Amino acid sequence: MATKKESVPDPARSLGLLWRTGDRNARSGLSVDAVVTAAMAIADSEGLEAVSMRRVAERLKVGTMSIYTHVPGKADLTELMVDSALGELYEDMDEPARAPGGWRGALMFVARSNWQLYQRHPWLLELTGARPVLGPHTSRKYEAELRPLDGLGLSDVEMDSVLTLVLTHVEATARALAAVTRTRQESGMTDSQWWFAIAPLLEKLIDGRQFPVASRVGASAGQAFDAASDPVHSMAFGLEVILDGVGALISGRSRG
């Protein structure tokens, strides 16, 4: 089967692809959108590592070279996948601001929406990087998530920092949940089964008198979560604490 060497990343070309400048459907009906949709379906069912230009071509029942005509390489394809997935978040750019509960309710809506997106597309956690994907859906997401913070007395940098704090918390706990899920699948054991298996040896190795605080807290957390940790609880608890801090910041600005 014909293959093509991956092209060198080109930021200008990538932006053109993301914003669909000059995209034309082929006679076969093939388009950038069709390629991206097929790639996302593969990633959702088999993981990001299963996505290749050849696999996408097979799914679309076209030759591999036809895929390269629309998307030059996998680096471009993964950026397109990220931007497309982010387009699922909101109906319009005012949806978060319409959530009940003012700015706090809006940020909770933003957090839940991003959390649910990671559950639908866990491969997104493998594609978060230092540089954003500057596509249309990414831009709309940023606008939508900032609007509830506008007019609260925060500076522009503070607005960006508050949003970043919420989103990085969601990403971190979603990543932890993905790791827990993967460990359960690979080990073939639930957390309860794992704890039951190691508990007798652990009690012999660890002297609770030497680690009194850790023993007490660890036992309480283990009993509450039936596991070493609970990323779902961590997400909800941490979000409330973060929003309490944001509330204090906003109150301080209004008093000043």
Describe the structure.
This protein has twelve helices and no strands. It has 256 residues and is mostly helical. The radius of gyration is 23 Å and the shape is flat. The mean pLDDT is 92.
Q: How big a fraction of the residues is strand?
A: under 5%
Main sheet specs: none
So what's the overall shape? flat
Calculate the terminal CA-CA distance, rounded to whole Å.
68 Å
Number of helices: 12
Q: Briefly note the structural class of the backbone.
A: mainly alpha
What helical percentage do the residues reach?
55-70%
Say how many strands there are: 0
What is the radius of gyration computed over CA atoms, rounded to a whole number of angstroms? 23 Å
Taken in chain order, the helices and strands follow as: HHHHHHHHHHHH
Q: Uncertain regions: pLDDT < 50 for 5+ in a row? A: none
| Average of per-residue pLDDT values | 92
List the helices and strands and how they pair.
Layout: H1 11-18, H2 32-46, H3 53-60, H4 64-70, H5 74-86, H6 95-98, H7 102-120, H8 136-146, H9 156-187, H10 191-205, H11 212-225, H12 231-255
Helix pairs in contact: 2-3, 2-5, 3-4, 5-8, 7-9, 9-12
GO biological process, one term: negative regulation of DNA-templated transcription
Protein name: Transcriptional regulator, AcrR family
Keywords: DNA-binding, Transcription, Transcription regulation
